[in-house]
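Our collaborator T.R. sent over the components below with a one-line note: 'Predict the complex.' Nothing else. No constraints on interfaces, no templates requested, no preferences about which chain binds where. So this is a plain run: every listed entity goes in together, and whatever single assembly comes back becomes the starting point for the next discussion.
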Amino acid sequence: MIRMIRSLVLVCVVAAGLLSWVYLFTKDRIEEDTRQKVRANLVELLGDTTLTFKPVIPDTLWEFYRDTTKLGIIFRSYGKGYGGPIPVLVALSMDTTILAIRPATPAEGLKETPGLGTKVTEPDFTNQFKNKKPSQIKLKKDGGEIDAITGATISSRGVVEAVQVGIAKYLKYLR
Amino acid sequence: MKKYIWDGIFKNNPVLVLMIGLCPTVAVSTTVQNALGMGVAVLFVLTMSNLTISLLRPMVPESIRIPIFIIVISTFVTITDYVMHAYAPAIHKNLGIFVPLIVVNCIILGRAEAFASKHTPLPAILDGIGSGIGFTLAILGMAIIRELLGSGKLAGHIVLGTKFAATPILFFSLPPGAFLAIAVLIALTRLRK
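Returned assembly:
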């Protein structure tokens, strides 16, 4: 009994020590890679490499600047989809115009039906949000200006919901 | 000594003969790069865990050997995961969940239980290298079939002409194509016997 505990504890301690050493050794590069991926997503969203991004809430809210002028915010928010929450990145300008949106791709955690709900990531759908005011962001059948994807109303509504919820929550950061 | 390596590659090939570790073989054999990344990861974890388990043999009581094996294996898998993320982020992104899932890969626990826990360190290392190469060759074979027919490319380079690359047999890039490819490879292995 004592022998069992002793060998199990010993193996665990050595394993933990080894892992902490490898973790410390690789930590900087892994964090750098994660930062670059996030930045690449933000740059792609606005299609502009000259902007600077300042994180406000880690992994959720960023302010973006040209030189020292604040141009708006980018946030990540979630709406109810068909297969789970739909994460959406939204860029909002200072006058609360939506500049661009980008729902997560299936590889990034979108759980909608392949070939139907996953079409929310395509430009045909996301471009509809560009340069609209929050009040216009509703599906046409709900009295707004967004065409739902045929056969994927729930997913389309989920993206709309993510945008609305996010604006309600983060509007106060537009100052 | 050489026999241990050759056995792992041919007579006891983990995927094509023992039929274990099929899940990553089917899932990440879409391109040659992914297959090589996965092969190297399994080869490293298998060799290191075989060595460690063989070294620990005298101090591991029979009744708790499985928990100890799992701790050793998951330690090496986590090391592989961190190092891949730090130094090969592109491959790490493609392999995704399949690197952490090496922990529950039957090949590794299987070799630990059936071989490393009963042999001295040198044969254990050789067995790990042999089985690791066996796995790598199997998944690489799958990837060559699938990438070539599914996208007309090999390791990202167009090899079957631009006309074929424009309209490849997409079926082979998708999961059903993986099942067909592995069936063909296993059938060929059986034929040799």
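Summary for T.R.: Residues 2-16+24-147 of chain B form one domain.
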